[in-house]
TrEMBL record:
Its EC number is 3.4.16.4. Signal peptide: none annotated. Gene3D superfamilies: D-Ala-D-Ala carboxypeptidase C, peptidase S13. SUPFAM superfamilies: beta-lactamase/transpeptidase-like. It holds the Pfam family Peptidase_S13. One of its GO terms (molecular function) is serine-type D-Ala-D-Ala carboxypeptidase activity. Belongs to the peptidase S13 family. Keywords: Carboxypeptidase, Hydrolase, Protease. This is D-alanyl-D-alanine carboxypeptidase/D-alanyl-D-alanine-endopeptidase.
Amino acid sequence: MSPALATHLCCAASIEDYTQYLPDGANLALIVQKIGAASPSIDYHSQQMALPASTMKVITALAVLLQLGPDYRFHTQLESKGSLSGDTLRGDLVVRFGGDPTLTRQDLRNIVATLKKESVQHIDGNLVIDTSVFTSHDKASACRGTI
């Protein structure tokens, strides 16, 4: 077995160990190559096509798993200072996102279903999307001024 193939098999096996932590239905394609190197040091399903957003979610989810552990849970919260009058929420509904990289459209549908289950059919106010958890990460530290 060539050293390159042995390295590939070793790295692919270690990547496989981590794929069990990915969300159901996730696909992973990864290529790592040192600048100036003739070939990649890791080539895992590199021919598989993936949208960049999907790729970034996988990397983010894996980083969260490794840094925060498997028991950490992100929170997406609904808040309102309004009152319920019949089936109408009178006041703003604030959706406070916590940065969950695994949040899906179905999760958002489930949030709406929960509201409906609580008898909220109409909102007489604004829908406020709070992404303030990200405010310190909107620019690289070298950025100055307005982008």
